[in-house]
Design goal:
The chain has one domain: Rossmann fold, CATH 3.40.50.970. Helix content is 38%, strand content 13%. The chain has helices at residues 4-28, 55-69, 85-94, 97-101, 109-118, 146-154, 174-179, 182-185, 210-213, 216-225, 238-246, 283-294, and strands at residues 75-79, 161-167, 193-200, 203-204, 207-208, 229-234, 252-257, 302-303, 307-308. The strands form 3 sheets. It has a 5-stranded parallel beta sheet with strand order 1-2-3-7-6. Strand 8 and strand 9 form a beta hairpin. The longest helix has 25 residues, at 4-28. Bound molecules: thiamine diphosphate and magnesium ion. Magnesium ion binds at residues 167-169, 201, 203-204, 209.
């Protein structure tokens, strides 16, 4: 009580839980979105399509950046791994950004039902970030452009700050890796600040990423070689993340190290897309899905009548 710091961290944790729940609900559920009765086979989508593995990390980054930068109009979050669309969609729903372009996507029970039911559904939302998503400027599922886009926005705009979440697989692309050199071109005070955040979750799809196989020292040296100061954020504790953001460093390069699929039932290389394959027909998978959804205690974070309690 009265400790502002604790309240802020609790709020971040709650938001991450809410977004993670919304991710799992979007991927799997066609009904019973608030688990008002035990989950049944016919609550589950017949074709489950999308990506879970990257979602927890995106939600962690989004919640922490939002808590730190608030509604600063000069701050932008650039999301490299657009396949983590359930996470982006969850955050945009909660922030009311989706409702600005689609009046059915209000941050209430009906909006929640709407995005969950229509995710990866015929005539509904695609499984990746797409032109209908508020703020999306590059579509196509091709990894690698996030950092270059961010430097482009920062060029000639000293008032802007852009945080860019880059997958560890994404940083293996020639485009992303070469874009690290843009720091040299934009390092004067006539341009904005770009804050790269490498999401070191260990895998690109199911293969180990090269950066996950480098030692911490080797990765630090690589990052320093591009002129950045590496700042590690180990795990998803908001206290660690907020402390990292508060560091006053000219050219920070954050390394967010989380486990791929964290908070889900199967972590690591098998979590990239859909960790539980057959909850619509296999009782064991259905039970595991129900336990997974319940682990977020969404009933503490959302009220059917009044919406999100975050
Ligand atoms: C240029 C390019 N090559 C390959 C792919 C196929 N692909 C889609 S997701 C993915 C893995 C991405 O790994 P990472 O960036 O580490 O993301 P995360 O682990 O957060 O899912 C790959 C290789 C792609 N989308 N774009
Ligand atoms: Mg990865």
């Amino acid at each position: 009580m009265g400790d502002v710091g604790t309240t802020k961290f609790d709020q971040i944790r709650k938001r991450i839980r809410a977004c993670n729940y919304l991710c799992v609900a979007q991927l799997y559920l066609r009904d019973n979105f608030l688990l008002e009765r035990p989950l049944r086979f016919d609550d589950i989508k017949s074709r489950i399509l999308g990506h879970w593995g990257t979602c927890n990390g995106i939600n962690v980054a989004y919640a922490n950046l939002q808590a730190f930068y608030g509604d600063d109009p000069n701050f932008t979050f650039v999301l490299g791994p657009g396949h983590g669309f359930p996470a982006l969609q969850a955050n945009l729903l909660i922030d009311g950004k989706l409702a600005e372009i689609d009046d059915k996507a209000l941050p209430d029970y009906y909006g929640l039902k709407y995005i969950c039911h229509n995710f990866s559904w015929p005539d509904g939302f695609p499984s990746h970030a797409n032109p209908a998503t508020p703020g999306v400027i590059t579509e196509g599922g091709e990894l690698g452009y996030a950092l270059a886009n961010a430097y482009g926005v920062a060029l000639g705009h000293p008032e802007k700050t852009l945080a860019v979440l880059i997958g560890d697989g994404e940083l293996e692309t020639a485009t992303a890796l070469a874009s690290l050199n843009l720091r040299n071109l934009l390092s004067s005070n006539k341009n904005g600040r770009v804050l790269p955040i490498l999401h070191l979750n260990g895998y690109k799809i199911s293969a180990p990423s090269i950066y996950a196989r480098k030692s911490e020292r080797e990765l630090n040296e690589m990052i320093r070689g591009f002129g950045f100061t590496p700042i590690w954020i180990n795990g998803d504790d908001p206290e660690v993340f907020q402390e990292a953001l508060a560091k006053e460093v000219d050219s920070p390069f954050y390394i967010l190290k989380t486990e791929k699929g964290e908070s889900g039932p199967n972590r690591g290389h098998i979590s990239h897309q859909i960790p539980l394959k057959r909850p619509a027909s296999n009782p064991e998978d259905l039970t595991k899905l129900e336990e997974w959804l319940k682990s977020y205690h969404f009933e503490e974070l959302f009220n059917k009548e009044s919406g999100f309690v975050l």
